[in-house]
Structures are given as structure tokens and as C-alpha cells.
């Protein structure tokens, strides 16, 4: 009997290994793509939120400047002697005025899209007779939440 001189090639093991490597690469590439898309969506949401917050706070700073300008005629008058004159000077501005003893609290809100900034300002006399102003509260909130698709949805209070 003659033996054939054709070598026997075992292709089963190497084929399984190649298929496994190719499937692994495909799975990891799909996972990378999904992760990158989720990161991109998150970055856009964060950018949008930050932009809204900054615009709401800039609007609050503009309102503070308007209040300062409106109260300029009372600059040299102690707060305890204003006797409601601040209300007449601030009638054109959407500001809430509350008397607290010898001090005056001014509060207002500004908003841009879902971002709302609330500011409370306290004006009072010092021992030297000057007017001291202090920001009691400066708070910015985003009134939104995400729906099932990851889109921001405004919360209605």
C-alpha cells in the first residue's frame, strides 16, 4: 500500500479562533460606538445646562445693576429713613420688597429657558451710618428632567 504524501491540515481549530477574534472585535467596536454616542449626548446636555445657568445668572446681575441705579437717589439716606420711598423707585422692576426691622429685603427671580436664578438682597444701616448691602441668597436651579429618550423636559410647578 502506498501512502499519500498530502499533508493533513487541521483547519478546525484555527478557524474557530479567527471567528472568535473577529466576533470579539465586532462586539467591542459596537460597545465603543454606543459609549461614545452616550458620552456625546451627555456633553451636549451639560453644555446646554451650563449655558442656560450662565444666561440666567447674567440676567440676575443686570437686574442688580438696575436696582442699584434705581436706588441711587437714596444713596445718602439711611435705610431706616427710607419710609417706603424705595417702593416708589422700584415700581418698574419686578422686585419683592419686605421690611425686616430696620433692614429692607429685596428679592427677584430671573430665568432663561429652564434655568431660574433667585436673588435675595439685604440693605441695612451700619454703625458708621453707611448702607450695607449683602446678597443673602443667590441660587440657580434647572427646572428640567430627562424623558425616556434622554431629552430635557421642563418641570411645571
Descriptive notes:
The structure is a single chain. With 157 residues, the chain is of the alpha+beta class. The protein has one domain. Helices cover 41% and strands 28% of the residues. It has two helices and six strands, in the order H-H-E-E-E-E-E-E. It has helices spanning 12-70, 85-89; strands at 96-100, 103-112, 115-125, 131-142, 144-146, 152-154. The strands form two sheets. It has a four-stranded antiparallel β-sheet with strand order 1-2-3-4. The longest helix has 59 residues, at 12-70. The chain is rod-shaped and about 125 Å long. The protein starts with 11 loop residues before the first helix and ends with a strand.
- The helical percent reads 40-55%
Count of helix runs? 2
The number of distinct β-strands equals 6
How do the strands line up in the largest sheet? 1-2-3-4
Domain unit count: 1
- Could you tell me how far the N terminus lies from the C terminus, measured between alpha carbons in angstroms? 95 Å
| Element string (H = helix, E = strand) | HHEEEEEE
* Biggest sheet layout: 4 strands, antiparallel
Low-confidence stretches: none
Q: What integer value in Å does the Rg equal? A: 33 Å
Give the class from helix and strand content and strand pairing: alpha+beta
Beta-strand portion reads 25-35%
Shape: rod-shaped
Mean pLDDT: 83
Amino acid at each position: 500500500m502506498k501512502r499519500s504524501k498530502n499533508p493533513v491540515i487541521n483547519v478546525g481549530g484555527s478557524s474557530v479562533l479567527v471567528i472568535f477574534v473577529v466576533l470579539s472585535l465586532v462586539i467591542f467596536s459596537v460597545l465603543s460606538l454606543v459609549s461614545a454616542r452616550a458620552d456625546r449626548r451627555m456633553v451636549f446636555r451639560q453644555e446646554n445646562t451650563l449655558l442656560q445657568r450662565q444666561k440666567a445668572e447674567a440676567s440676575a446681575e443686570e437686574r442688580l445693576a438696575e436696582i442699584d441705579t434705581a436706588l441711587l437717589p437714596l444713596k445718602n439716606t439711611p435705610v431706616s429713613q427710607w419710609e417706603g420711598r424705595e417702593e416708589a423707585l422700584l415700581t418698574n422692576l419686578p422686585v419683592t420688597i419686605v421690611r425686616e426691622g430696620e433692614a429692607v429685603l429685596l428679592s427677584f427671580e430671573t430665568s432663561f429657558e429652564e434655568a431660574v436664578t433667585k436673588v435675595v438682597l439685604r440693605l441695612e444701616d451700619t454703625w458708621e451710618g453707611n448702607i450695607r448691602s449683602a446678597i443673602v441668597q443667590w441660587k440657580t436651579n434647572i427646572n428640567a428632567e430627562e424623558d425616556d429618550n434622554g431629552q430635557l423636559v421642563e418641570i411645571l410647578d
